[in-house]
Design a protein that fits this description.
The complex is a heterotrimer of chains A (154), B (323) and C (502). Chain A is an all-alpha fold and 154 residues long. Chain A has five helices and no strands. Chain C has a two-stranded antiparallel sheet with strand order 1-2. Chain C starts with a helix and ends with a helix. The mean pLDDT of chain C is 87.
Chain lengths: 154, 323, 502
């Protein structure tokens, strides 16, 4: 049952989840478990915290006992590309306040097309501008859906 | 020459259809910030106000509603606090703005950090039971609660809501107790009562109206200072023999901090004029609100009294207050 | 036959040219609103409300209702094409719908979504018309123990959604429960897991998590590959533009399932379209002969939840129009709208305003037909969206995700949360944690905890209340059964393996 899904990551995720379970249990301890009127704020969290701790310990133990499935070496290149995309997204969100959605999104698109997909810079620029303009026209103008606005007013 | 020009100025100002406080005029669209999303209670009232303003031509500019939901009102309050000095932004506050900072440490902006402008309405409530309930008066219910402590049940909102405040005050003054079951939405609370799963609830008169008319609900008492027009035969809490203060549910207007005095006076007068218009009076009547207009200074005093009292009530209820 | 007379009268009202026009406007607007992630019917209806003051009330309510159920049609579009849930009810459609799109079957997926929506939507209106009063009474008999049992049944379905590792699925569901607890506790006003942030006082929005864990994670996973060519096969030939006869046959039970579950759950004031679609999906998976394939692109896995979230609208109108009790955000605004025009929904609404009620019912039949005619031809068109080169499509998905999240509350903080959950979703994908249980736990967590605490408050601490009441006892037994059945299967497999090794 666990065979195909065992990964080396199981150990770390198991440990992380166990830590989460412990954190939840400690926090739940600070709240009322059972009050005069009924279960308090700590009731439910305590139980699912315990469950998380128990199951993650089970995960870690079963991993330690059997090791990972073969052939699951982490492909750091792939991971890098995915995380760089995330980072680019994070940066563009950070730029919303000063630059607004339209410009930040254009920059994001440009980076993705030019860097991730290695398209010619002209294609990247065109896609970026067209997409950003499209969003502006469809959402802001046609539908009146608010887009994050920057210092420049759009 | 001087007296003539000042006479002309005086006559001109008397003839002006709108009397602005000296020196301030809204320069752009006025923002009215609410803490609910579109369709929520405050949003509906704010939009109604915007329509009235346009209809009665009370402002030379438009009033637009800005939704800043989240954080149980804390996000909207923080937004206003950020707009320090902005003379064209207002906030429509409700009891939630006053209560959230009392119980949540994360909500750092209280009404003291903002500029009070005016209190607008008080929302009364009625105490209702299912039509086939054995209790015909509130006294009967209290009597039953005394005989079976903790067994009767009331449906309501959170433990800081007005529903629970009424319950706490009644419990304290009569020495009885009954359970309070929280439901997140009005629909679920009413369903719990009509389904017979709880015995009593505090409900807005408008919400109760249709159920009473259909014969599904019975009202035992009203939570207000005076009897409501549509419930002439139902006693108020005081008339029913329960000497508890009427802790009102309020709505009013605040402004960002750091605005000049004439700005405050302008808005204060503006809202006073609003509450005197025909559309406003009709709105109040239709929704069974009570006119609770107070100017800025009185609102500031009211705020202090209200929070002091809430703090006491919450302490009695066993709720931890953080401010 | 009072009902026939009423319906006849209703069609007379609904077929008036002005009302037909407003019906069309409503369903068209609803479809557009549904397609856009984030922006939902409640906000749209609230914004249009002032414009309706000068309209005749029948036309106005017909239009607003059209927006309500029309949005349910459109919600599946981005779910299927981009793995971006259009609204919370469409989250379940992402599970199999997007997988179908990846296999080149976007057309049939979109088509079956429209057809299931039509069938179930019509059944929902039928239910509203025929059995509203007894259903309303049934709904009132549901108390907190029953809601707890219902949610438990839903959560037990996590076992069915488990995929290959039950431990990981359970962990994901529990983390979902944890995320659902973030915010201010309703009963005690205690702040839980808010990390000092005031924005978290009202909890974490479901749509934000769903878009992050599904859409953002999906884009990140796809960024890993260096292929420049299209990763999404384009539907070839007419066969793959619309559902085939075989597809329709496969979905027979799904149509029934979605219609009934959606309507019943919708009629419960504490229910909702998210719960309805999860339950319907779970039931479909439980009875399907190819249940192991659910999650890889099985058409019934799209038909069932899509049907459920449409018949839910009919169900939600039951308590609204017969009792004046709104069950959800949209029905609350419809209630406000009716009150604004001077009609007060309640037990006396139908007898006193038959023209309005029957006109609305009739218009819903018409509206569903309009929506089918509107949506089906659009299916091949929408399916062509996937023809876009991926380097245009994926940034587009990112943009749509961000706009969708921002339009919910206009808060940059929500965008931060989106990023966090996008990362979480990606890590879950890499480590083989299924994301559907997380979403399920999040959807049900708050309601389940509330129902449990309410039940214990009502019974003064006695857990027996949960099994003393017949309906909740039955549902809880089902939940336990659902949890145990796979265990039996695995115990058997272990036993066989142990025997072999001897």
């Amino acid at each position: 049952m666990e065979d195909a899904t065992r990964k080396s990551g199981d150990l770390w995720s198991g440990v992380a989840l166990a830590a989460l379970g412990l954190y939840i249990i400690i926090q739940a301890g600070q709240w009322e478990y059972l009050g005069p009127e009924g279960p308090g704020a700590g009731f439910f969290p305590l139980w699912y915290g315990v469950a998380i701790l128990a199951l993650s310990v089970l995960l870690v133990v079963s991993h330690l006992k059997r090791g990972s499935a073969r052939g699951d070496a982490t492909d750091w290149n792939k991971l890098g590309r995915a995380l760089s995309t995330w980072l680019a997204l994070a940066v563009s969100v950070a730029l919303f306040k000063p630059l607004g959605f339209v410009i930040s999104f254009a920059l994001l698109t440009y980076c993705i097309v030019a860097v991730m997909y290695r398209r010619p810079l002209a294609t990247a620029a065109l896609t970026a501008v067209a997409s950003a303009a499209g969003f502006y026209l469809v959402f802001d103008r046609a539908l009146g859906v608010p887009l994050p606005v920057g210092v420049l007013g759009f | 020459m001087k007296s003539a020009s000042s006479l002309i100025a005086l006559v001109a100002s008397l003839c002006a259809p709108l009397a602005f406080a000296e020196g301030f005029k809204p320069a752009r669209t006025v923002d009215l910030v609410v803490h609910t999303g579109p369709g929520g209670g405050s949003d509906v009232l704010a939009r109604a106000i915007a329509i009235m303003v346009e209809k009665e031509k009370l402002l030379p500019v438009r009033l637009q509603v800005i939704n800043k939901p989240g954080g149980n009102g804390a996000v909207a309050a923080a937004h206003l606090a950020e707009k320090r000095g902005d003379q064209n932004t207002l906030g429509l506050f409700t009891g939630v703005w006053l209560q959230t900072p009392l119980v949540s440490a994360e909500a750092k902006v209280t009404l003291r950090d903002l500029t009070p402008i005016a209190r607008l309405v008080l929302e009364p409530a009625v105490i209702a039971v299912k039509a086939d309930s054995p209790y015909k008066t509130l006294a009967e219910f209290i009597g039953a609660a005394r005989k079976n402590p903790g067994q009767l049940k009331q449906s309501g909102g959170s433990n800081t809501s007005r529903d629970n405040v009424v319950r706490q005050l009644l419990q304290k003054s009569t020495g009885t107790r009954w359970a309070f079951i929280s439901f997140p939405g009005g629909g679920e609370r009413i369903a719990a009562l009509l389904g017979g799963h709880v015995d009593i609830m505090v409900i807005e008169p408008e919400e109760a109206g249709e159920h009473i008319r259909a014969g599904n609900m019975r009202v035992l008492a009203q939570v207000s200072e005076r009897r409501l027009a549509k419930f002439p035969e139902i006693p108020t809490l005081k008339e029913a023999g329960f000497d508890v203060p009427v802790v009102p549910q309020v709505r009013g207007v605040v402004a960002p901090p750091g605005i000049p005095k004439e700005n405050v006076e302008f808005w204060q007068d503006f809202f006073r004029r609003l509450t005197r218009t025909q559309s406003w009076r009709k709105y109040i009547e239709d929704n069974q609100f009570e006119d609770g207009y107070q100017n800025a200074a009185d609102l500031a005093k009211f705020y202090e009294e209200f929070t002091d009292r809430m703090r006491e009530i919450l302490k009695d209820a066993g709720v931890k207050t953080v401010r | 036959m009072e009902i026939l007379a009423g319906l006849f009268h209703g069609f007379a009202v609904a077929l008036e040219p002005a009302n037909l026009f407003w019906c069309f406007v409503g369903v068209l607007l609803g479809t557009v609103v549904g397609i856009l992630p984030g922006l939902g019917p409640p906000a749209t209806i609230a914004m249009l409300l002032p414009l309706t003051f000068n309209m005749n009330p029948a036309g106005a309510i017909i239009m607003l209702a059209g927006i309500y159920y029309g949005a349910k049609y459109g919600g599946s579009t981005t779910s299927i094409l981009m793995n971006v849930p259009g609204e919370s009810a469409s989250v379940v459609t992402c599970l199999d719908g997007y997988q179908m799109a990846k296999k080149g079957r976007a057309g049939p997926a979109l088509g079956i979504a429209a057809i299931a929506s039509f069938v179930a939507g019509t059944v929902g209106v039928l239910g509203l018309m025929l059995v509203a009063p007894p259903i309303a009474k049934f709904a009132l008999s549901f108390s907190s123990p029953e809601y707890f049992a219902l949610m438990s049944l839903g959560l037990a379905l996590v076992v069915l959604l488990a995929g290959r590792s039950i431990v990981k699925a359970l962990l994901a569901a529990l983390v979902g429960l944890w995320i659902a607890s973030v915010g201010t506790d309703l009963f005690s006003s205690t702040s839980r897991f808010t990390f000092g942030r005031m924005e978290l006082l009202s909890g974490i929005d479901f749509v934000v998590v769903a878009i992050g864990v599904f859409a953002l994670a999906e884009v990140m996973v796809n960024m890993e590959a260096r292929e420049e060519t299209q990763l999404l096969p384009v539907p070839k030939g007419l066969k793959n533009l619309l559902p085939t006869m075989q597809d329709l046959k496969d979905c027979r039970f799904a149509f029934l399932n979605g219609s009934v579950i959606g309507f019943l759950v919708g009629a419960l004031p504490g229910g909702g379209s998210t719960i309805a679609s999860f339950l319907s999906y779970g039931l479909e998976k439980a009875v399907s002969p190819r249940r192991e394939q659910f999650g890889t692109g099985v058409i019934e896995g799209v038909a069932a939840p899509e049907g459920a979230n449409n018949s839910e609208t009919g169900g939600a109108l039951v308590p609204l129009l017969t009792l004046g009790i709104p069950g959800s955000g949209t029905t609350a605004i419809l209630l406000a709208a009716l009150v604004l025009w001077g009609f007060k929904p309640g037990p006396l609404f139908i007898p006193e305003h038959p023209a309005l009620f029957w006109g609305l019912v009739a218009s819903m039949y018409i509206g569903n037909v309009m929506l089918l005619i509107l949506n089906l031809p659009l299916v091949p068109l929408f399916a062509q969206v996937l023809r876009m080169p991926v380097y245009v499509l994926y940034p587009l998905i990112l943009g749509v995700s961000m706009v969708g999240v921002y339009s919910v509350s206009g808060s940059l903080f929500d965008l931060l949360l989106l990023l966090v959950f996008g990362l979480l979703g990606y890590l879950m994908r890499k480590l083989d944690y299924p994301s559907a249980p997380l979403i399920l736990g999040l959807a049900l967590g708050a309601g389940m905890e509330r129902a449990l605490r309410q039940s214990l408050m009502m019974s003064e601490g006695k857990l027996s209340i949960l099994v003393a009441r017949p309906i909740s006892a039955v549902m809880l037994s089902f939940a336990v059964l659902v949890l145990l059945i796979p265990m039996f299967g695995k115990l058997n497999a272990w036993r066989l393996r142990a025997l072999e090794q001897d």
